[in-house]
Amino acid sequence: MNKKTLFFAVLLLLLVLLPLTAQGAKAPSAVTLTMGSWRADDVEQMNRVLAEYKKVAPDVTIRFQPTN
Predict the structure, then answer these.
(1) Residue 65 in contact with residue 39, Cβ under 8 Å?
(2) Residue 61: beta bridge partners?
(3) Quick check: 37 and 68 in contact, CB under 8 A?
(4) How far is it, in rounded angstroms, from Cα 38 to Cα 65?
(5) Mean pLDDT of 13-34
(6) What is the DSSP letter of 59?
(7) Which of 3, 8, 18, 61 is the most buried (most CB within 10 A)?
(8) CA dihedral 25, 30, 36, 40 (to 10 degrees)
């Protein structure tokens, strides 16, 4: 094996192993998001949609704030 081939083999190995060094951060247990809208008429409908979303993602709270 010549030096060039060995170099690329080692480089490839390092690139493959590099993601193993990444440490994932823990996500916060609860998240609150604020959603704005220019349609104040949709408050009731959005509250129903957000209630359904809360069933799927209980750790996420979305506050709906329409502007008038």
Answers:
(1) no
(2) 32
(3) no
(4) 9
(5) 84
(6) T
(7) 61
(8) 160
Task: Single out the residue of 33, 24, 27 nearest to residue 63, CA to CA.
Answer: 33
| pLDDT at residue 23, rounded to an integer | 75
> From the CA atom positions of the chain, what is the Rg in Å?
24
Distance, in Å, from the CA atom of 61 to the CA atom of 31, rounded to the nearest integer, reads 6
Q: Is 34 helix (H, G, I), strand (E, B) or coil?
A: strand
**Token pair 């220019």 is at which residue?**
38
CA distance 62 to 51: 9
Instruction: Give residue for tokens 């493959």.
Output: 16
Residue 28 and residue 60 in contact, taking contact as beta carbons nearer than 8 Å = no
Average pLDDT of 28-55?
A: 89
Give the per-residue pLDDT at 60: 92
Fill in the DSSP letter of residue 12. H
